[in-house]
Amino acid sequence: GFARAVVNKYSGNVRVRSKGEKKWHPVNLKESLGAGDEIETGPDGKIKIVLESGRVVNLKPNSHLLIRKLSLDLKKDKREDLLESLRGQIRARIEKSRKESKLEIQTPVAVAAVRGTTLYFYISPDGSSSFFEGGTGSLTSLISKAMAMVNAGQNASVDSQGNLTGPFDTTDEQSEDLDQGWDPDGDYGYSEPEGG
Asked: How does pLDDT run across 74-123, given as a tens digit for each residue?
């Protein structure tokens, strides 16, 4: 069945364009999002959304996200979340799952597939860079169709021409940088117990 996502927390300037609408509106806490909805964060905007499948997606400032498809079949334990981004910085965390579950994020030049891990995805005019922690995933160039399997602690990139590089081992320094500054500032949101 079709699934939803919920705005769990945000700070700064974040706007949403609902499916079929021309106009954007300021995001609301606990707003329900679905396929066809778009999110943009401003220069100071951050947002955390929780997908019905249990996945958690964060956006940093100056980021864009379009929800292509959210699908959940509890009987078969099948989850399929397809997202798209034109620019920005995205973190997607998903639990280790069975083969039937997939989370994909597409950019103008690449698509990253996540299999029970944390993906950090950086999308700019120069290309798309994916860093995987805690599990494996893949990055595919939409232009050359080349694909790299990326293990935990590795990264791969596709440049604006569609050239795929990697996987490379992520350095400790890169790892530390990856984790900084994701959570929305301030108290616009309900807190969850720490842990995990």
From this structure: 777 788 899 999 999 999 998 766 656 789 999 999 999 988 789 999 99
CA distance 84 to 88: 11
- Between 49 and 195, the more confident residue is 49
Q: Are strands 78-84 and 102-106 parallel, antiparallel or unpaired?
A: parallel
Q: Over range 137-141, report the average pLDDT.
A: 96
> Which residue do the tokens 């959570």 mark?
183
pTM value surpassing 0.70 = yes
**What span, in angstroms and rounded, lies between the C-alpha atoms of 52 and 79?**
9
* Token output for 141: 């160039």
pLDDT at 134: 84
With beta carbons less than 8 A apart as the criterion, state whether 90 and 108 touch.
no
Closest Cα partner for 58 from 89, 34, 81? 89
CA distance linking residue 131 with residue 79, whole number of Å = 22
Of 144, 97, 147, nearest to 130 by C-alpha is 147
Q: What is the DSSP string of 60-83?
A: -SS-EEEEEEEEEETTTTEEEEEE
b/e 3-18 (16+ beta carbons within 10 angstroms → b)? bbbebbbbbbebbbbe
Q: What is the pLDDT averaged over residues 167-195?
A: 75
Q: How far apart are CA 80 and CA 25, in angstroms?
A: 27
